[in-house]
Write a structure and sequence with these properties.
binds zinc ion; 54% helix; mainly alpha; two-stranded antiparallel ribbon
Length: 146
């Protein structure tokens, strides 16, 4: 049986992605990466106990970007495994960003940045220039450009 430590309360649980039996916390997004770092897939028995004690003592967890990247690779979430958005989705996102609002793309970027880094980057670069173009145009017209 595998072991993991709840990143919120430090209680022990069976697997890193399970709901904590003590506090009910279920890791998601970036938290899933930290949860994996707090499992026996990554830490040995003693290190896991030390981590649990630190969490119970209220010490903040600050995994380095290198550690998070290691977790992403282990969980198959790194950019090289994220195929990115297919062309129809990219086109739809661009049209939505131009016609409606670039907030849709920014929301996608926000949600995906931990788990689908390539898709998140694509969503960001499709929506931000579109937003700048549209709002720049609106402001230019408002200022009497036309
Ligand atoms: Zn917990």
């Amino acid at each position: 049986m595998s072991r993991a430590v709840c990143l919120r309360c430090g209680a022990e649980k069976g697997a890193y992605d399970r709901i904590c039996p003590a506090c009910g916390h279920r890791p998601d997004g970036e938290g899933l990466l930290v949860a994996w770092l707090l499992s026996d897939d990554h830490l040995g028995g003693d290190a896991l106990d030390t981590a649990a004690e630190r969490i119970r003592g209220g010490m903040p967890l600050r995994p380095s970007e290198a550690m998070l990247q290691r977790a992403r690779r282990a969980l198959g979430l790194d950019a090289t495994r994220d195929p990115g958005l297919p062309w129809p989705q990219r086109a739809a996102l661009l049209v939505i960003s131009l016609v409606l609002t670039p907030l849709v793309g920014l929301t996608c970027w926000f949600w995906w940045r931990g788990t689908r880094p390539r898709s998140a980057t694509q969503a960001f670069w499709l929506s931000v220039p579109a937003g700048v173009l549209v709002w720049g145009g609106v402001i230019w017209i408002r200022l009497g450009g036309l």
